[in-house]
Amino acid sequence: MNNIRLLGTLIKINIQQELAYRADTLINILLSLMWLGWELLSLSIIFSNTATLGGWGPGELIALLGVWRLVNTLMAALIWPNTEKFNTSVRDGSLDYTLLQPASSLFLISFARIVIWRVWDIALAVVLIVVGIGMHGGATTAANLVAFLLLVASGGLIIYSLWIVLMACTFWFVKFDNNVTILQALMDSGRYPATVYPPWLRLIVTFVVPIAVATTVPMQALRGDLRWWQVLLFLGVGLASLLVARLVWRAGVRQYSGASA
Fold this sequence. Notes:
Blueprint: H1 2-19, H2 22-47, H3 58-92, H4 95-99, H5 105-111, H6 119-136, H7 142-168, H8 181-187, H9 199-208, H10 211-223, H11 228-255
Helix pairs in contact: 2-3, 3-6, 3-7, 3-10, 7-10, 7-11
């Protein structure tokens, strides 16, 4: 309950910061619409030359684009802005003040900065998913839809956990800047189903930097391609990822000696 109240307070603070720069928010929303138009144009060009892409139709690719936008928004709204702040706080010692607060340091690091206007991107992503499913026109059962929603949440949890582990590496390697550069570089691969990539790249986006687990796998559940045990397996991987990330974070905090040490 304390974390919920704290999250509410942080959201209010970030809303006030966003309202101080209304013109920037409007420009960012317009840029987001421009990028969406470009992404849809790219899909239109692809499907003007072929009926399917790796066995996926236009509606499924649009729904996949929506899932990818959900995950990408998680990174853009939370991960990227908080990463820079965290790296700086480790080097200049201001992390000491965060660790002394009567709240979870991981929670404070994760939600200190929230890019509020990204809510707009979440709405666009949901619209893309709904439109894509409608265009697909296949028989989507209630069980497939529930599995899809659970796996989207689980995929976001896996990406978040990976970010925590990369951030925690800064405790051991202080100059570990750009610790999410690889994550950012590979995010774009999630726009398309993992099945279109060569085997070596498919292994990377599935097991090393599991973008595909957060995007392709939920869509496979919606298509009915996954068995129930596979759904449970991926959900278990999501929970295990969070547990491992928390353990690594705690080990990193114990390693941290402060700026004056």
